[in-house]
Structure formats: C-alpha cells, structure tokens
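Protocol step 4 of 5: obtain the predicted structure for the target chain.
Materials: sequence only (see below). No template structures provided, no constraints applied. The aim of this step is simply to have a reference model before the mutagenesis design in step 5. Sequence pasted as it appears in the construct record:
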Amino acid sequence: MNEYETLETVVAIPINKLVVDDTFNCRGKIKPVDVIDLANSIERNGLIQPIVVMNIENTGTYKIMAGYRRHMAFTVLKRTTVPCIIKSKMDEKAQRIINLTENMGRKDLNLMQEAHAILPLIEFGMTQEELVRAIPGTSRGWIQVRVMLLKMPAAIQEEAAAGIINQIDIRDLMTLKLQNPNNLDVLYETVKRIKEAKLLGKKKRIKTFETKKPAAKAKHIRRRPEMFAMMEHIIQSLDTTTLASRTLAWAAGEISDEALFISINYECKQRNIEYFIPEMAI
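Step 4 output (structure tokens):
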C-alpha cells in the first residue's frame, strides 16, 4: 500500500455530489468517447474498483482524486450513484500522488501527461529520490526524462504527447539543447528528422547530434556548452548540485571565486575536514 493511502469503506455517492477538476487529473479532460469500452464493461460486469474521493468540508460534495474515466463512464451510463472510497483529509501533494499512481496502474499515460503530473510535485519541493519512493514503478531515470521534457519547447512537448518522441530521443535532445542554448532551430530540425523517419517506418535510431567516440578520451580545453552539458549530466545523475557541478559552473564563469570557496567549505564540513578559505579570496 502506498504511504499516502488509507483503507476506507466503499459507499454509494450521488453522481451530482462528485466534483470533477480536469486541471487536477493527470489525464486532463476526459471525453465520453474515450470511455465507451469502459462503460460497456461496467454495464456487463459492474465496477471492479471504486473511484477515490475526498470530502470537501462544509459543502456536502466530494473531490475526485482517482477514477475520472470511471466517473465519465457512469455519466455515459446515466447512473445516479457511484461506488466510492472516501479518503481521509490530506494535502494536495498526497492527493496528486494518488491520482498519478492510480492512473499509471491502469491505461498508459503518454510522456507529456506523466511530465505534467510530476510538475506540481516538483513545485511542492519533492526531490527526484522522493518522487521515486512515492510513485511505484518509477526510477530516477524515469523521473529525469520527464523533467527534461518539461524543459523543452511546447512544440516538442506536443510531439512527445503524440508518441513521436521517445525517452531516448528526449535525452539526446536535452544534450543538443545544452550544446546549442541559443539555437532552438537545431532542436526543431532534429525532431523533424525523427518524425519523418517514423512516418517512413524506419526503426533505426536517428542521431540527434554528432558524436565522436575518441573525443571522450581526448584531453582538450572545453567550451562553455560542453561544461553546461556536463553540469546537467552530473546534477541529473546525482539528483543534487555537487562540488563537481559547482566547479564546472565556476570554470564557465557562472559563479564567483567566493561562491566556489563557500561550496568547498560546505563539503569539508560535511566530511569533518578543516578548511580555510585562501587569503586571496578574503
């Protein structure tokens, strides 16, 4: 059982007492045509899993937290009541986790729906580690890809929602974006090539940027885009800003000597190492 859930009794609640919030539901607005098969199944076999709701104090109504498709199916069937599990009062973060977890366990969400679903949780201050623990079936890599997608232009997000762009593409596009921070046309052209390849039925992966394998072992002075790409890689991989990423930021001219010395001092304190900021920095 998810840590945010509690066992409650199933009760029949009048359908007009249930509050639908399409902006809360990670699937967005549910259309009647989307639930025809589900409605037919409920008509034949009954509802297997009640929807999950929470009482809205002093209103006599209930907010739907999970089960928007089932609610629409009951609406299509013109039922007057819906079997519900009433959850104890909880904060919005917990409500959203229930909504996302329940939806992921049923009909697949697309990448953009999943990204939109975790965005409010990130805004609540949840780290990637906390998200992995709270959302069953996910991993740090799963979270990272969706965070990357949220940083992409809207047109590219739409292609992800349509299934044109997959998780590998998103990682490659993020690297390309970091290497070309002021040139979005490079991203659009790459997505165009990916889309054309899929329309032609090509299964071979499209290269989103030129890579030279020997370069990984070569020693040379790095350009700022390369530094930013490495910074993002370190932060995404470790789910935190590290001394390594701070040093790259310093080398790229993004932070001052003083800021880096403060970061070094913090790391030393964490390891019980005595540290003195150089006199030249004082």
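Step 4 remarks: The chain has three domains: 10-106, 113-199, 213-281. Residues 1-7, 209-214 have pLDDT under 50 and may be disordered.
Proceed to step 5.
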